[in-house]
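Session log. Operator J.P. requested a structure for one protein chain; no other inputs attached. Running the standard single-chain path with token output.
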Amino acid sequence: MEKEQIHFVTGRLAEPALREIVGRLAERIGFGFTVQVMPITVAALLTPHWMASRLEVPPGTTRILLPGFCAGDLRPLQDRTEVPIELGPKDLRDLPAFFSQPATPPDWSQYDIEILAEINYAPRLHRHQLLDLARQYAAAGADLIDVGCEPTGGWRGVGDAVRAIKDLGLRVSIDSFDREEVEAAVGAGAELVLSVNSGNREWAADTGAALVVIPDRVEEWERLEESAEYLAARGCRWRADPILEPIGLGFAGSLQRYYAARQRWPEAEVLMGIGNVTELSDCDSAGINFLLLAICQELGIHSVLTTQVINWARTSVAECDWARRLVKHAVSGRVPPKRLLDRLVMLRDPRVTSFGRETLAALAEQIKDANLRLFAEPDGFYALAERQLWSAEDPFELFDLLSQSGWLGIDPSHAFYLGYELCKAEIARQLGKQYTQDEALSWGLATVDERKRHRLKRRRNRDAGEGAAEGAGD
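Structure written below.
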């Protein structure tokens, strides 16, 4: 097999670090490489349109790798060459991880766990609130919208509520023991009833809906069996829910019951209500949801019921959606679910890289303009501009150094920007996250994109124009 020949494209500031990292990778992995330095200072400002007339592809190149920040349609570039063009990581320090990725990425469209997202106390909500939650849960990955009723029953509007959700094109389940509520909901299109035990199984069997069977009391396993057998004899569609208990109130024992349910009914559907753990534990929900869905995947439990009421579980539906994809891949492929997907790594980052003082000092020597480059390193904060380097362990100290140096002939807008970026850098250092100037901190699936913010857009447009003019003179 011929050795791969990769053509890397970058800007002037990143060239030394890029050559160092790629040189090590090429030796370790075994590929050849070339580097094209575009006539622009900052690689993040490169655009496909601007590069189209400047790209030079050496003979024998098998792949072209652009900086990950390169925004826009790649077709102007791809039309100039038959060599495949792709984006690398946004941070060149992530190149080792980029090259360690599998040749064929996992297919994250695959999963077999159904998510029921419960709208708690639905009778208390105005119709627009109910529908807004239904849309929100469906967009986050819910397969069924579970309409949760009051324990006392008596909701006259349940049928209209179910019809309104159905009109959105969504599937609906009803969570009630009240006969009138259940029958009205099923009549309006609800396809699943939560829940059925010996107290309501006779009339529930006549609804024609699928039924979730629970024990009369959590510890009464035999009553769950009786109800399941009764419904099976009536020809009803049913799934078992042995009830997941909160931590401290029988959590481990309830896991044993789910295992027993799978042993008792190898082919039957089973549902796990995971909100009893996520909502009742002082802990961020992402890790808990992942672990519970991993248990479900290994036991062949194909339904989970979740809620996102308490603030630390406010993204539970989306967490379950990505967790079910990750555990499906792990269990099916018999691979540990590590370094495959970062959507559920939210508090800290999968990896944090740093340049080191020596590299930053060398980089500072190349910078001729007055724009500050900010870095968060293990030993503190760094600012680079006009062949100068400032560093401090505290962001306030760094600001003082900049003020005392005479660099800061600063307007309020720029001062606000600097404070904003240093605040992000401080959070990153405290939590063990990667800080990249002008980029959002990564919070997994909860990340908020900052690229559309007006100041950054204005700065990028201005700097790109300067870079284009600079390139035209070279």
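Operator note: The CA atoms of residues 158 and 277 lie 28 Å apart.
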